[in-house]
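Researcher: Structure prediction, please.
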Amino acid sequence: MWIDSHCHLDAPEFDADRAAVIAAAREAGVRQMVLPAVAVAQFDGLQRLARLEQLAYALGIHPLFIDQAPDADLQRLGEALREAAEDPLLVAVGEIGLDHFVEGADLARQQRFLEAQLRLAREHELPVILHTRRALDPVLAALRRHPVQGGIAHAFNGSVQQAAQLLAMGFKLGFGGALTYERALRIRELARTLPSDAIVLETDAPDIPPQWLYRTAAERAAGAVSRNTPAELPRIAAVLSELRGWSLEETARITRENTLAALPRLAALPVPADA
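Model: Predicted structure follows.
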């Protein structure tokens, strides 16, 4: 059984065929998927989808959506977490964090929202799913000020030293389509050499397509699509297996155990029968 620890199946890219995408993932052996929220306005639809398909979810405000989020959204997030406290499908606060890649972002506002959401995660005794693009050091500093019950650093692309700090705080590190690119030397080396209990698998669907789905800008302009889906996870895992020298069965077991350690409430969820 595979677990996709991070995918956005509520995204509009899946509006035309969402049920088929989920069915294909399960056919491929991806039995559980974690759906992180990105904005308060999305919470109701995300929860409906999760409950319909018995998928895990997280509630949070993504740093790239904060410029459109009024301050009252933090209060609404707190209320949503309280209302869902007994929902076994709620497994984390996320996707939260910082993004220093996009020019013009209000970094001070991102910082304030991150710290408020870390406080909410601590209040509700939930792990967090972190977005850390070009911002690992300030995220680590925020975690030192507001320690939480670990979680997952999504799409990890930091240094060995930063990885060690996150692991010491109880986090696992998410790897997905990026490790399939032969030129992604640092990510591949991290995936190859990190402790075996550090790694979880993710797709970030519909984003971060693996190498075999990549389309150039010219191809995309001509109408080609490169939508990622959770069904790609086993093939991504096969690349990790090759890098690590693990069998596919070992990779499934290790990454599944790591995901359950990062998001403990996942362990209580029912697993759909084999397709």
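Model: The chain has a mean pLDDT of 96.
Researcher: Thanks, that helps.
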